[in-house]
Design a protein that fits this description.
With 312 residues, the protein is α/β, with parallel strands linked by helices. Helices cover 49% and strands 16% of the residues. The strands form 5 sheets. The protein has a 4-stranded mixed β-sheet. It has a 3-stranded parallel β-sheet with strand order 4-6-12. A 3-stranded mixed β-sheet has the order 10-7-14, with no helix packed on it. Strand 8 and strand 9 form a beta hairpin.
């Protein structure tokens, strides 16, 4: 651990106190009796033991202060969840800070309080001061709180999803013949990524995903992934409107004729969302954030109502 100015002052004070208590004469006799090298080793050992005790004290103090800050942040969130709309709007910056502290200190609040904050956030206009930072902190806090094992996805060594191909699609119980309604029927599990990290505002990652959606299946799932957003432009195809798509049945060596696909291009399930915003993001980022804010917190798909998110 590097020494900061506080640590240096402590070392100087410890040495001075040792001299004052024992006297410089005693220290000189000690050095003479033990020889220079032996005395130096003894002094180093003494200082090491004192330093270890000091570091332990500082660590325990910081942990206690962190827990206190976490409990104060929890009280702030609980209080603001019950505020009238106008007061809630005015306190959004404080709410964002409280949610960030609660994430850091791993402090939980009741589902009732989470629901109350969500409803008030949805009802608050996005132009309110501190709205976007607070919305991002709420999304991040809620998804981490709901996750079964958040530490697994928050691992710094988590691979980037688009560094490899997704798991391939699987077709089961499909018939090569049209049903009475003139459509083909069967069970289809589309391609998916799992246990990896995806940045929504990464131009390179967005380009790779869009290429997959256009050239392969028109839908892609992210299962148990870490979804990161820092407020940049999101250049993803989020939904398709009547995109022709042929389904392959490898077991039967058949390819069903192309049928129009209408629905979400991207589906996020059981994911942790790590959002950090300092201001209003671009339009598609706003849409993504608000849809996620209104969702159950870990699962999200897109319809075709928003033309900005739709590819024909």
């Amino acid at each position: 651990m590097p020494l900061n100015e506080t640590d240096r002052a402590w070392v100087r004070e410890t040495i001075q106190n040792t001299l004052n208590i024992n006297g410089r004469g005693r220290l000189a006799r000690f050095t003479k009796d033990w020889s220079g090298a032996g005395a130096a080793i003894a002094i180093v050992l003494f200082m090491a033991l004192q330093w270890t005790a000091y570091v332990e004290f500082r660590t325990q103090t910081n942990d206690r202060l962190g827990r206190i800050e976490g409990q104060l942040a929890k009280q702030t969130a609980v209080t603001q969840a019950s505020l009238p709309a106008s007061e809630f709007r005015a306190a959004l910056p404080d709410l964002g800070s409280a949610l960030q502290t609660m994430q850091k200190e791993k402090i939980s609040i009741s589902p009732v309080t989470v629901d109350a904050i969500q409803k008030k956030m949805i009802a608050t206009e996005s132009s309110a001061l501190g709205y976007w930072p607070a919305a991002a902190e709420f999304i991040s806090y809620r998804s981490r709180n709901q996750a079964q094992n958040p530490s697994q996805l928050l691992n710094a060594n988590l691979p980037n999803c688009t560094d490899s191909d997704p798991h391939p699609p699987i077709v089961t119980n499909a018939s090569p013949d049209r049903g009475p309604d003139g459509m083909y029927h069967g069970s289809f599990n589309g391609p998916y990524y799992e246990n990896c990290r995806f940045e929504l505002d990464s131009p390179d990652a967005d380009s790779k995903v869009n290429s997959m959606l256009m050239a392969r299946a028109p839908f892609l799932s992210f299962k148990h992934c870490l979804i990161v957003y820092r407020g940049g432009a999101i250049d993803l195809i989020l939904a398709f409107q009547n995109k022709p798509y042929a389904i392959e049945i490898p077991e039967q060596h058949l390819v069903l004729p192309a049928t129009p696909y209408l629905g979400p291009a991207l589906i996020f399930g059981q994911c942790i969302f790590d959002f950090r915003l300092t201001a209003a993001p671009p339009p598609k980022g706003q849409d993504f954030t608000q849809r996620l804010l209104a969702s159950d917190g870990m699962t999200l798909g897109f319809d075709v109502q928003n033309p900005q998110a739709t590819e024909n």
